[in-house]
Amino acid sequence: MVFGSFIAGSSPEGSAAIAYPVFTLLLDIPPPVARNFAFAIQSIGMTSATLLILGLHIKVEWNYIRFVTLGGVFGLVLGTYAVVPLVSPVMAKLFFVSLWLSFGIALWLENRRPERQVFDEIRNFKRSDKINLVLFGFIGGIISSLFGTGINIFTYCIMTIYYRVSEKVATPSSVIIMTIETILGFFIHAQVLRDFQPAAFEMWIACVPVVAFFAPLGAFVISKLPRKSIAQFLYFILVVQFFGAMWVIKPSPWQLAMCSTVLAVGLGTFTYLARVRRASSTEGAAGSGG
User: Fold this and answer.
1) pLDDT confidence of residue 288
2) Which among 16, 25, 197, 286 counts the fewest CB atoms within 10 Å?
3) pTM for the full model?
């Protein structure tokens, strides 16, 4: 959790991105226990990181936070009651680490373009953008219901690739979004469903002092780094996460085929979104210039 909580504060990945696969695949902890622990521990670590972000007045994108959170609340509730019982945790994990890696490759390709422009906010924010963010927040909430994290990195993909919001702004914004989502998830399992297991509680109590320090430390460190360094840090996390999952899960041939398909489709989708946004921005600039 030293590493996981630092990642939670310094990247769009929650600490559950580290804890969940380690707990379920290496330590043989049941997925429901790992998920509930993830919600509980992030309620401490990510809240601490959020308080530091707000206290230092680190730049965030509030439209992103508001509308993604709105959709994420409904997605989390629906996922908890209707999706979690139906999905294999291993298959879901393979799917999402493949999708995140395709995003990392697409972002790397975008950042290799010397003329790439990034912004501190969503430019020309419209009603359609509100709908987009609510929809992606809803999907991200369903993902979070499975693993205890996910809405942050899923919506971060759209922010950086499609809206071209700087990684330096999108990262702390995603931390705040996951903070709200994880507190709600913790409340649902502890007070509504009342399925918060004693094992999850004991691990939570043991790790609270660690994450309360290292999550805000991660947020502080990332606030001092340049944008491209943040992006490089994220590439590293996504690559390690993908190959770590491959090493631990040891997927079958058909699971590898699924991962390859997701990688290809995800990379095509993200590069298409980036190209569409560039084209629309160019047309808009030409129209305003004329």
Assistant:
1) 43
2) 286
3) 0.84
